[in-house]
Amino acid sequence: MKNSIWLFTFAVLLLAVFIPSYSVMQDKTKKNAEYDVKIEELTAKKEDLRQERYLLEKDPTYLERVAREKMGLVKEGEVIVEITPELTE
């Protein structure tokens, strides 16, 4: 009977010590999974940016399109005509 009580007490103490650290380990594992997803997203974004950089450096047609669409640049003598839709009530 005494051995049973000692064994039970030892088991309870062991659980009391390891359950909090198990919980911390689970939290760390979850964070690692989140970081892995973030790394994959950033790696994909980096590859997209690398591809865009290559196009900007090597493809004059792409460079012109970006300059026109994103920066609003025009060639000498060109006139920009903006068409805005009318609001009908």
List the helices and strands and how they pair.
Layout (H helix, E strand, L loop, with lengths): L1 H57 L1 H12 L18
Describe the fold and architecture.
This protein has helices at 2-58, 60-71. The protein is mostly helical and 89 residues long. It has one domain. The longest helix is centred in the middle third of the chain and has 57 residues, at 2-58. The radius of gyration is 32 Å and the shape is elongated. The chain starts with a helix and ends in an 18-residue tail after the last helix. The mean pLDDT is 88.
Outline:
78% of the residues lie in helices and 0% in strands. It is mainly alpha-helical.
Q: What is the β-strand count?
A: 0
If helices are DSSP runs of H or I spanning 4 or more residues, what is the number of helices? 2
Integer count of domains: 1
- Low-pLDDT windows of residues: none
What is the straight-line distance between the termini? 89 Å
The structural class is mainly alpha
> Helices and strands, in N-to-C order?
HH
Largest sheet: none
Based on CA atoms alone, the radius of gyration comes out at 32 Å
How big a fraction of the residues is strand?
under 5%
Summarize model confidence as the mean pLDDT.
Answer: 88
Shape descriptor:
elongated
What is the percent of helical residues?
over 70%
